[in-house]
Amino acid sequence: MNWAVIKDPTILVTSVVYGLLFVLAAQAGLFGIWLGILVLISFWRYCYTALRSFAQGHKRIHPPDLESCNPVGDWGVLMHFFLFPGLMAVALIYRPAGLVLVPILALAFPASAALMGLTSNIAHALNPAALIEFARTLGTDYRALVVGYIGILGGAFLVLSLMGMVSGMLVFLVGTIIEIWAILASFALIGSALRAHRLQFEIVGELVPREELLRKQRHDDWRKDLDIAFAAFRSGLYASGYNSLHAIVASQGDSLEVNHWLVENMLEWDEKKYALEVASKLMPRMLASGDGSGALELYQRCRRRDPQFRPPQPVAEQLAECARSFGRSGLADELSYN
Q1: 283 vs 180, 278, 333, CA distance in Å?
Q2: What pTM, to 2 d.p., does this model score?
Q3: CB 3.0–4.6 Å: which of 35, 99, 137, 198 could bond 25 by disulfide?
């Protein structure tokens, strides 16, 4: 989760613009009522636009435009935004039973807003099972997200309470801007949390990092050479097949990444022995690099592919010791050579 999003320049400038519009609406009499409603609806829609933008990986979000702040259309988003403050207001009125509902709504809001931003499906965004699954997926980051957005809103409320002791148009304007910023910052924080867990979610329109594009290109190049090696082994040209494998490894300086990639892909072959040979050499290197859990996971995957698989005795002993350190005594016993 990237806390820097709460001070994004676009969010700061947008908060000022909406603050000015709300103050203008408050001073415009009967016309101001309609202007205030349109600005409020526009602001609600832009909150979800900001959430999606940060979830997609944009370093700087776009300011409001005709589409992102259009007050007409996408009523599910508007209804979702209205429901949470609306339900909280009702809960606070009907006390003390309603006070139980407020903490539940506060805990559920980030998950619900994230799902609404991702799917634009209000039924899914209000589904308790979906909310629980979302929170479980984020794990400790979800707790940090809840604390973060409550802290932002709580801090803004405290500042507004202190400012309420002073009257004046300028104070009203500054207070409005702070309130708008707190809401926008909360949505931005939810978007950044989604971005941090983007591999667990399908985010429409997300930006793929340059490093990931380069990695995909590398893997595509390796795939061509691996297909050549596979064809050689299938044809009985074992020397040629091994030469192709060695060429792939050598091109990457015998890195852990390329060896792990080879194992992952060669385990899909009908003949598993070639992948198991590479895996037996890779496991001790993973252990030496401190990736004990990865080495154990690789061993178990090889065992699932070939129940007869046994790494060399020194490697098995290292894996067994690692398994014991993780409290996996059953796996350690399986690895121990008697």
Answers
A1: 53, 9, 18
A2: 0.64
A3: 35
